[in-house]
Amino acid sequence: MKPFNQYSRTVIPIDRVNIDTDQIIPAVYLKRIERDGYGEFLFARWRYNEDGSENEDFILNQDGYREGGILVGGNNFGCGSSREHAPWALNDFGIRCVIAPSFADIFYNNCFQNGLLPLKLPEDVVAKIIEKSTENPNFNLHVDLESQRVWDDEEEITVGFDIDQFRKHCLINGLDDIGLTLENEKHIQAYEKSKLDN
User: Fold this and answer.
1) Is residue 38 part of a domain?
2) Which residue range is the domain that position 80 belongs to?
3) 60-104, pLDDT tens digit by residue?
4) pLDDT digits (tens, 9 = 90+) for 101-126
5) Has residue 80 been placed in a domain?
6) DSSP notation for 61-124
């Protein structure tokens, strides 16, 4: 898993509550077994018209936002089914941080397992970020996981955030469950060898 520490990107504002995992990545695209290749289908029902052409009204099809890497949405982000494909699609598109006032629990947990940082910030701060990024397609945010701080270029927005310290450690060091297990590889091998020797 790719480590996450300091991250600066353009903001993609989607001012909606209850954005569910089927909106993030529709079920029809869940046929792949790899973790990559889902980015082109991110928010597919909103991004594309019925004929497959781009919906020009959707934020990801507008100049300045296409290359964004921080998605900001409303309350209860990632609700719905528990599909891990949702953070896969966000990651594959190039989004490594999602900011919202609240998240659905399973989506929130899946993000950490896939190197994506879900940040819970106060509603008034999220509203201000959405307002500024809607007015300016080149609005950037900076996230420092080590110091647990978020700020914009002018530092008109600067806010700290809370995060579980174990999850912070895993993100900074690029450790998913497999990576954590492999940290004990020598002990595992020694144990297996001791069983074979008996």
Assistant:
1) yes
2) 6-197
3) 999 999 999 999 999 999 999 888 999 999 999 999 999 999 999
4) 999 999 999 999 999 999 999 999 99
5) yes
6) GSTTTTT--EEE--SSBTBSS--THHHHHHHHHT--EEEES-B-HHHHHHHHHTT-EEEE--HH
Q: Is the pTM of this model over 0.85?
A: yes
Domain count of the fold of the chain: 1
Looking up residue 132, the CATH number of its domain turns out to be 3.20.19.10
How many C-beta atoms lie closer than 10 Å to residue 65's C-beta?
A: 21
φ and ψ at 49, to 5 degrees? -80, 170
In a domain, 1, yes or no: no
Distances in whole angstroms, Cα of residue 124 to Cα of each of 120, 128, 129: 12, 6, 9
CB neighbours of residue 163 within 10 Å:
16
Does 22 fall in a domain?
Answer: yes
Tokens for 176, please give them.
């998913």
Residue 140, classed as helix, strand or coil, is strand
Classify the phi-psi angles of 78: left when phi > 0, otherwise alpha if psi is within -120 to 50, otherwise beta: left
Q: Work out the end-to-end distance of the chain between its first and last CA atoms, rounded to an integer number of angstroms.
A: 36
